[in-house]
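pinging the channel bc i need a second pair of eyes. not urgent but kinda urgent?? the chain im working w is below, pasted from the shared doc
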Amino acid sequence: MTYITALRRYTAKRIEEIRNADILVGIPCYNNEKTISHVIQMVTHGLNKHYRDFRNVIFIADGGSTDDTRETAQEFQVKPWQEKVVSIYRGPAGKGTALRSVFEAARTLQVRACAVVDADLRSITSDWIQYLLDPVIDKGYQFVAPVYMRHKYDATITNNIVYNVTRALYGKRIRQPIGGDFAFSKEVAKFYTEQDVWDTDVARYGIDIWMTTSAITQNFKLCQSNLGVKTHDAKDPGQHLGPMFRQVVYILFALMERFENYWKPVRGSEPVETFGHRNSIEPEAVSVDLDGMIEKFKTGFHQFSSLWKEIFCADCFSEIQKASKLGAKEFHLPTLVWVQILYELAATFHAWKRNRFKIIEVVTPLYYGRVASFVRETWDITTDAAEKVVEEQALLFEQKKDYLFKVWDEKSRA
């Protein structure tokens, strides 16, 4: 079924009654009853502290929670001069559809600026609202991405895949392309609502990387804002992140095809303006099961090595084979091999037009292998020092971009 709007009739009517606003803060949520009150509290305090003279709307976009998320949000008292709307969105289940409803509300209300924050945040402060919105309201930026202090083993998909590929492809050093907490202008909200992606996987799970990539490729004025430490419902990369790896990589590669004409001429990268001060607090530790990840990698090798041999070049496969024989103490999957793996995988995805999700599924164990290697490499160093390892890796992705061109064209011809 195609939905022409994500707003239900009662929500659209409520938005029309409000008529217009200066600022809208959207909170997409699903089964977040334990954290939603804290997030709303910080949003209402932040708006009161920094934007009391503006017309403010807090918009909770719920995905049909089966706990008491909506009731908790409904009962929470915001400041009397602020508006609060609690809605259930229409359309495919997922954060993307929730944000579509936020974009539509922002467009209808003709807001000057809109921010979105995740509903599972435990470290959000009232100042996050200012850090996100100020660049749009006071400095004329159209899209604001977050920069967080995160534990070295939080955000392994960002650190090992998304940051590297996005930076190498599009030439902008946006550190958290799938950060979850963004701000943007009404022009950007209008652009998002008009795109024909709402019946695709973007609406289910690819919204963050789609928003960032669209902002870059449409040449909107971009910046980043330091939000400090991010603490949320973190997941052990060995236990929970396989499905997220498959989903994010699928969208990342689909966007590569869509914006091929944009990224092919891009060489190198440039920093984007970053506001706020970076602190050096060590974030809450994320535990990892190193042995478990190596075991998943080795099991994957036994199951899929014949397929991997077809997908990857001989040198690359040889290194994977070598890693499959290593124990936890000496385990290593070199960064250069990881660059080759991702670029060859992207080229295979591009050339292979059927059942593409399956390709990503069979290489998921390689992600566990790379994260295990990163964990071993950074085991005895601080999160700050691990950040230098991430930056070195990102630079290597840039330097080897010609390899992507080579395999992209070769596999397309084959």
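so The chain is about 55% helix and 10% strand. and The longest strand covers residues 222-229. — does that match what u expected or am i reading it wrong
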